[in-house]
């Protein structure tokens, strides 16, 4: 009976669980799915062999990989002392039946924009730190975030994978030869990126304009009347609130989201630190 009921009346089926303060997958309303992160060992370049840094994040079934590739380029004329960070989120058809092959759809574009905003707003990396020689040479970091399995909450997983991959990047030292004006790359001497902030995203689905549930699955996102993502940093400061339409949130509800996001930040940071610690050369 419940399988039929779930198919015919998914929202009603769902509400019966919410009344009991739980969800069909057994989680409480404020409970996140099991979260894991794998960061590659230095020298092997992590999960992706061609990348300068990479990470794989799992949030329940949602699986995202981020590879960071570093290239050299001339800085833009109007920002001679800055490098570039170019994020891109891909939701290929292989990760879910809801996505088609071809150019990026609306959801992938929105996710890419969200990640670009997180990088910009939080100054996760200062673009000045990517400059090698003012007006002459700078690093470009291409951050490709690819979803391998989609089951909701792509924003939290993408932001987490980006941060973990950036913490894994090792860039060779580069100097410009005074006489020839050419750049010289020393692959033997590598330095980690300076990560200035550790932004963490925490997403909520809003049910019946009132109930908040954390870390929604794809099914929960479909049934929800809205979603909201809160980004916080190391000091518990609010970096941004991303709310694409849907039901409005009261100030008190938003405050509740921020409080939960600060707790989540500590958990995610602990996870990353633990993994980074485990891959450090002994």
TrEMBL record:
MF GO annotations: mRNA 3'-UTR AU-rich region binding
Q: Which residues does the UniProt record annotate as the domain Exoribonuclease phosphorolytic? A: 45-172, 199-262
Q: Determine if Nucleus is one of this entry's keywords.
A: yes
Q: Does the keyword Cytoplasm apply?
A: yes
Q: Which UniProt keywords apply?
A: Acetylation, Cytoplasm, Exosome, Nucleus, RNA-binding, rRNA processing
Record's subcellular location: Cytoplasm; Nucleus, Nucleolus
InterPro entries from the entry?
A: ExoRNase_PH_dom1 (IPR001247), ExoRNase_PH_dom2 (IPR015847), ExoRNase_PH_dom2_sf (IPR036345), Exosome_comp_Rrp42_subfam (IPR050590), PNPase/RNase_PH_dom_sf (IPR027408), Ribosomal_Su5_D2-typ_SF (IPR020568), Rrp43 (IPR033196)
Task: Please give one Pfam family short name.
Answer: RNase_PH
Listed GO CC annotations: cytoplasmic exosome (RNase complex); nuclear exosome (RNase complex); nucleolus
Q: Which CDD domains match?
A: RNase_PH_RRP43
**A GO term (biological process) for this protein?**
nuclear polyadenylation-dependent rRNA catabolic process
PANTHER family for the chain: EXOSOME COMPLEX COMPONENT RRP43, EXOSOME COMPLEX EXONUCLEASE RIBOSOMAL RNA PROCESSING PROTEIN
Instruction: Tell me its family.
Output: Belongs to the RNase PH family.
Its name, as the record gives it, is: Exosome complex component RRP43
Organism for this UniProt entry = Mesitornis unicolor
